[in-house]
Write a structure and sequence with these properties.
This protein is an alpha+beta fold. It has three domains: 87 residues; 68 residues, Signal transduction histidine kinase, dimerisation/phosphotransfer (DHp) domain (Helix Hairpins); 149 residues, 2-Layer Sandwich (Heat Shock Protein 90), CATH 3.30.565.10. The chain contains nine helices and seven strands, in the order ααααβααββαββααββ. It has a five-stranded mixed β-sheet with strand order 2-4-5-7-6, covered by helices on one side. It has a two-stranded antiparallel ribbon with strand order 1-3. Strand 4 and strand 5 form a beta hairpin. Helix 3 runs antiparallel to helix 4. It is elongated, with a radius of gyration of 37 Å. It starts with 14 loop residues before the first helix and ends with a strand.
């Protein structure tokens, strides 16, 4: 048998009236007890007076104390009701906003009129609503972008397989290679999404695998992973790094560096070399990857680290990019309390990041 969620009470339902009613009881009790104490003390002090005068004094004192008590209770109740109503008014607005959220809406930010506990509560509520709104917008954008990115390779695969099934075209090595690349791109995209999801929530976890690593050696290790790719495209690489040990999650930073190098190779244009620099500054280590590349428009500068963002969609599809590498890199660096950015140039692009020493 289930118990009622809210027990019945003899007090008024609304919080304002409940609080005022309880306060009136407490104040009334205090005033009555004080009046009785004053009355008894005064009566004791005038015991030497004649009977008629003492009786008149007692009745007069009792009358004035009674009138004083009623006036004090009445005025005190009105003042308390007004102050309490003013105090809980922000809570009423907060309740209305939470009801709006229950209906699936995002209310406007509430005005913060004080710096006390209620003001802090409203301020934190505003931040919560804004964060939920941003998360909702990002989630919607992610779903739209993901459906857009998956549609093209799936349509290509479906079209070719349907044509093969119905004998419209005959399979050859070139066709099979094309189909394989499309399926490989889909697999890579899903893998990147899983990685991005992992780093979205890693801030809530402890870095149990965080350790002191020589960043200069890690950079060289990353470059070695691209040896055959660099050799195949005949791209020279220059490495200039200073020695330093940094507390980090090795696999994460290794992936971040690899993503930036892969980006430099993927969009390499020209005859120059890709230059990787590592400098030990006062409180941080600065890493930059500089490579000849197509100029990135100024209005795209702040968007290049967004998920699925690509400057030229067709060019990125040709090179196999899904627009997730830089987003993953940004997430990893920020979870290490570092910074990441981009410096534009006419004939080369510089991606950089810093890690605290």
């Amino acid at each position: 048998m289930f118990m009622n969620k809210h027990k019945k009470s003899w007090l008024p339902k609304q919080f304002l009236f409940r609080l005022t009613f309880l306060n009136i009881l407490i104040v009334s009790l205090f005033i009555v007890l004080s009046s009785l104490a004053i009355y008894n003390t005064a009566c004791f002090l005038v015991e030497g007076m004649s009977g008629a005068k003492q009786k008149q004094f007692n009745s007069t004192l009792f009358y004035y104390l009674w009138i004083f008590s009623l006036i004090a209770i009445f005025i005190g109740s009105i003042i308390h009701f007004y102050l309490t109503k003013k105090l809980i008014h922000p809570l009423k607005r907060l309740i209305e906003s939470t009801k709006s959220m229950q209906r699936g809406n995002y209310p406007e930010s509430l005005e913060v009129t004080s710096s006390d506990e209620i003001g802090q509560l409203i301020s934190n509520f505003n931040e919560l609503v804004n964060q939920l709104k941003v998360n909702h917008e990002h989630r919607q954008k992610l779903v739209m972008d993901l459906s857009h990115e998956l549609r093209t390779p799936l349509s290509n695969l479906n079209g070719y397989l349907y044509a093969l099934k119905n004998g419209v075209i005959e399979g050859d090595e070139t066709l099979y290679q094309s189909l394989y690349k499309e399926s490989e791109r889909l697999t890579k995209m899903v893998t990147q999404l899983e990685t991005l999801k992992e780093w979205d929530y890693i801030s809530k976890q402890s870095f149990s695998e965080k350790e002191k690593i020589a960043i200069d050696q890690l950079i060289k290790e990353s470059v070695k992973m691209f040896y055959w790719q660099l050799k195949d495209k005949n791209i020279p690489v220059e490495i200039h790094t200073e020695c330093a040990e940094i507390s980090m999650y090795k696999e994460g930073i290794l992936q971040a560096i690899s993503n930036l190098i892969d980006n430099a190779i993927r969009y390499y244009v020209g005859m120059g070399s890709i230059t990787i620099e590592g400098k030990k500054l006062e409180n941080e280590y600065y890493v930059s990857i500089i490579g000849p590349s197509q100029e990135i428009p100024a209005d795209n500068k702040d968007k290049i680290f967004e998920r699925f963002y690509r400057i030229d969609g067709s060019r990125s599809r040709d090179t196999g990019g899904a627009g997730l590498g830089l987003s993953i890199t940004k997430e990893i660096i920020e979870q290490h309390h570092g910074k990441i950015g981009y410096k534009p140039s006419k004939d080369q692009n510089t991606f950089w990041f810093t890690l605290p020493l």
